[in-house]
User: What shape does this take?
Amino acid sequence: MAENSDIDQTSATLRENGFVVLPALLSDQQLAAVVQHADNLLDGVGWSDNDFDGRRTRRVYSLLGRLGAFESLLTHPQVRRLVTARLGEVHQFGMLFLSAVDPGQGAQALHFDAGVYPLPQDVEAETNVIWALDDFTAENGATMIAPGSHRWPAGRRPQPPELVPVVMSAGSAVVYSGRLWHAAGHNRSRATRRALICEHVLPWLRPADNHTLATGVEQLLSLTPELRRLAGVAPASKYLGVVGGQDPEQWLLRSARSR
Ligand SMILES: O=C(O)CCC(=O)C(=O)O
Assistant: This one.
């Protein structure tokens, strides 16, 4: 009962402000495993080659085939309930990546993630999550957000005084509307600020990342059915997202059996 009312409260805050911080969701042990996995993935990765991604930022995509300790973040029950309450039972991952904002990285261009979809403003197409793998501070480039901007009319952009840093401890997550204006902040500190960023979108939209192709049949089969659905192996309806008229999950399992 108390759990339900917590979800109601966080859902209401998310609806109202366009974001909600879920503090300290991971145990020390879980966080250590996640950070270790992040460091393994980042090993040898260079800076991005464009201004938006950040020329002092390292990014790792195509994570579903090498989830390791990240699985507990992507399937965290509190986050899953919140996202499901907004998007419905059937939804899918949008963009999914690990990001390491290195010292000296300037602030990212302000944007809202659902801007890639030419949809009316009242369609809640996307609910996203940024997991802090390090403490997020105003100094080290915590995500800057404009509270309430998910409700702004088209064309209104945030002015500097409207932006606030999402200060949160490592192991916390901010869940936010795909219509919320935000950007990675300027990292003025001497340390890297790492995050796992996970978008979720309605099932009838094309996700930013092509997860099924990036992951491949073998790796998809090694995921749990829940993660497979989130990777896009789920029809959006009886007639949308099928394989030759079949449910893609059934198709995948049959193709595994016939090998
Ligand atoms: O790293 C962050 O704080 C946000 C990054 C972001 O919004 C993006 O790259 O689209």
The CA atoms of residues 3 and 78 lie 9 Å apart. The mean pLDDT is 96. Helices lie at 2-17, 28-42, 71-74, 77-87, 211-222, 225-230, 248-257. The first strand starts at residue 19 and ends at 22.
